[in-house]
Amino acid sequence: MSRYDVTEDPLCYPGTNVLRNKADLTNQDELDQFEQLMFLTRSEEPLPEGALDYAHYRAIHHHFFQDVYTWAGQPRQVRTAKGGNWFCYPEYIDAEMHRIFRELTDENHLADTTSPQNFAERAAHYIADINAVHPFREGNGRCQLTLLDILMQVAGLEMIEDNIDEDEFMNAMIASFAGDEGPLVDAIIKIAS
Ligand SMILES: Nc1ncnc2c1ncn2[C@@H]1O[C@H](COP(=O)(O)OP(=O)(O)OP(=O)(O)O)[C@@H](O)[C@H]1O
């Protein structure tokens, strides 16, 4: 939910960085609270079924954010950055996401990884790639973590949610953007059992 650097964005209320939303909240703090409440509520429900492909990933985003944004599940159409790191330009998002999920499918969704270390190395690679693409205007971090949870289950591991250190994950994600996936591997190992 941290704010983005965005080029001109028709999804926001005019003159603000606040995303238009179904509750018509124009105050960012109120929107953050509403968004998180809806996300947590939808998290209590079963996730959409799917083939663990890009369409499935979009369906998961739609599931979590359908109460908040009309564009839930749809890729963003504006250029966005965080901390000066510009994510994939919108015109390349679909192709990049299809590529990533094709490669993940070719790796049998990590079902055949041989140890938590091996799993973490492969998962870090995919999560870092997906973060660099950043397909959605908002809600990327929460979808990434959900995908990681699903991949852990596929690999026969369990996510230890209490061990998630948000700052560590954020710093690891930033390092991965710069090409160093090591910290993300370490962060994933800590939450895999
Ligand atoms: N400077 C940065 N460079 C690369 N990735 C970043 C940077 N800052 C944050 N991120 C990553 O972006 C993701 C957050 O994206 P976004 O804000 O769309 O997701 P969210 O689900 O709304 O928020 P959050 O993950 O904070 O709950 C996280 O994975 C975070 O680690």
From TrEMBL:
User: Which stretches make up the Fido domain?
Assistant: 52-190
In the Enzyme Commission scheme, what number(s) does this protein have? 2.7.7.108
* The UniProt record lists the keyword Zinc-finger: no
Q: Name one GO molecular function term.
A: AMPylase activity
A single GO BP term for this record reads: regulation of cell division
PROSITE patterns referenced in this protein's UniProt entry, alphabetically: FIDO (PS51459)
- Write down the chemical reaction(s) this protein catalyses: L-threonyl-[protein] + ATP = 3-O-(5'-adenylyl)-L-threonyl-[protein] + diphosphate; L-tyrosyl-[protein] + ATP = O-(5'-adenylyl)-L-tyrosyl-[protein] + diphosphate
**Keyword annotations of the record:** ATP-binding, Nucleotide-binding, Nucleotidyltransferase, Transferase
SUPFAM superfamilies referenced in this protein's UniProt entry, alphabetically: Fic-like (SSF140931)
Q: What highest taxon heads this organism's lineage?
A: Bacteria
Q: Which PANTHER family does the record match to this protein?
A: PROTEIN ADENYLYLTRANSFERASE FIC-RELATED
Protein name as annotated: protein adenylyltransferase
